[in-house]
User: What shape does this take?
Amino acid sequence: MNQEKVDAFMGRVVADMAATDAAGSVVIGHRLGLYRSLAAGPATPEQFAERTGCHPRYLTEWLRGQAAGGYVGYDPETGQFSLSEEQAFCLADPDGPNVPAAFLISLGTMRAEPRITEAFRTGAGLPWREQHEDVFVGCDAFFRPAYAAALVSSWIPALDGVEAKLTAGGRVADVGCGLGSSSMLLAEAYPRSTIAGSDYHDESIALARERAEQAGVGDRVSFEVATAQTFTGTDFDLVTMFDCLHDMGDPLSAARRVRQALAPDGTWLLVEPNASDKVEENFTPVGRLFYNSSTFLCVPNALSQEGGYALGAQAGESAIREVATDAGFTRFRRATKTPFNLVYEIRP
Assistant: This one.
């Protein structure tokens, strides 16, 4: 046995353990508004307690742990902790990368660990709707900034002729819309278009309806509780699916329903995680995140449904292309990509 290799491996383990435990601290900071408060200016733990109304002893430990992880700064001369502009953007700005939302998802998925452990033995699934509510809220909060940054500015313009249709007034079906953020982004960007969002999770749809009314787009955005195989409507100019096809037990029948719902010259905008067809090329920090999330969320949901598929979050382009081709689509291309997503244009 090579002791240096053992030590190196244990160093990685300690880093992972520290990150795992830190997830709870990040979520505490999110729930209590600690990052937003610290973004207002440097503070000692005592000053921070006055500012936040929280107990100074808890804050002391929290601030030191955050500093040890590089999430906040510390000045030993003044004893003050602070957030840099970049840290504040990532941790305190809901329109930034919204790092706390990612940890909210992680903690939410861990609540299902006993059921997932048993599912390893039985092969049973775990439906999305039976996950903890932090998963639903966290996913929406985490993915929304990425969609806000790219959907209208990059993804739609990368599609052939779609932007002009939506500007003039098109019909859009947003399938698997969750809490409706993607639907509302489209409605706000293209006020002449109508958006029909659908999701099989009734609680998400209820929140989506509330948010659409609050955002003032309820007159052109509608929502229904429906699966990807049963959503209503036809002759859509655009059907969108954001990070959800790989979660489905029967993505093939969903793709067939999309083809039926599209106008003859319509487009299916499909956004999926950025993954290589070669498994070993996904052995990266992002790939590790996706595989582990998929173990707790994507694969269990797919196995809870009929269809026989469980693509997982790292399915890769070839598997997605095969589903589209088997569903009868004749045109498939990668329109654009981001570090986290592949964006496909699929047409009849």
Remarks:
- Residues 3-31 form the longest helix (29 residues).
